[in-house]
Amino acid sequence: MAGGRTRLRRREAALGLALSGPLFLIIVVLVFVPLALGLRLSTQAYSYGIPGGFIGFRNYSQVLRDPDTLTAAVHTGGYVVVAIVVELTLGLCFALALNRPFRGRGLVMAALVLPWALPSVVSGLLWLRIFNPDTGLLNQLLLRAHLLAEPKVWFASRGWAIAFIALVHSWGVVPLVTLILLAGLQGIPDEIYAAAAVDGANGWQAFRRLTVPLLRPALAVALTTGTILAIAIFDEIYVLTGYQLNTTSLMMQAYQTTFTRLEFGKGAAFTYLVTLGTGVFAILYVRNLKRAEQ
Fold first, then answer.
1. Has this prediction a pTM greater than 0.70?
2. Distance in angstroms (rounded) separating the CA atoms of residues 173 and 105
3. Residue ranges per structural domain of the chain
4. Domain 43-293 falls in which CATH fold?
5. 165-205 per-position pLDDT tens digit
C-alpha cells in the first residue's frame, strides 16, 4: 500500500515537472538570459557600436555622478508624488462608490476601464489636443466660461509641465488602482459593518477604524503598482513635451543615454540602477505593510 502511494507521488511529481518544464525554459530564455546579457553589457565600455573591454562598475559610478541623472531623479520623484496622490485618492473614491450596487454600475465600470485600456501614446495624443494653447478644449472651455482672459500655455514652465504630465499618466492608472481597491473592499465581510453599526459607529468611524485597516493589503498593492508605473513613465513625456522642456524622467534619460548617445554599456547600467531602486521601493512597501499588520 505504501509502495503504491510512493509510486503515485513520483508519477505526479514527474508529471508536474513535465508540464512546468517548458514554461520554466521559456522564462529562462526570455527573462534570465537577457538579464544576464544586460548585466554583462553594463560592465563593458560598449559605445557607438564598438565593443569595449571589461571596466567593472565604472559605468554605474559614471551614471550616479552624472548631474543629468540627479535632475531626472528629481523629476521622476515629482511624477511619483503627484501620480500616487491622485491615483490613490480618486481610486479609493471610485472604489467606494462602485462597491455598492446601483443601476448602470456595469456601464460606469466599462467607462472607467477605458482609459486603462488605451495605449499611453494614444492617451498622450488625446491630452495634447486638450492642452493645446490655440485650439485645445481646455482653453476653449475656460475662455467661454470667462475664467481666462486669454489662452494659456499649460506647459510653459517645468513645474506645471511635470504636474500636468503626472495627471495625464494618472488618468490611465486610476482605473487599475480602482479595480485593486474595489477587490479589497469586496473582500471585507458585511457582518463587520453591521456589528459596528450596532455598537453605534457612524460612517466615518467605520471607514477609519474598519475599512482602512482591512484595506491595507490592497492599498499596498495599489501603492506599489502605482509607484512602479510612475517611475517607468516615458510615453506621456515624449508625446506631451518631448525635449522642449527639461521634464526628463529616469527612463527617458536611460533612452537618451542608450539610443541617442549610443552609450550602450552606460545605458544598461542606468536601467539596472532604476530596476534596483524600484525593487527597493517595493520591498519597503511590503515591509511596512507587514509591520502594520503585526
1. yes
2. 20
3. 1-42, 43-293
4. MetI-like fold (1.10.3720)
5. 999 999 999 999 999 999 999 888 888 888 878 877 787 88
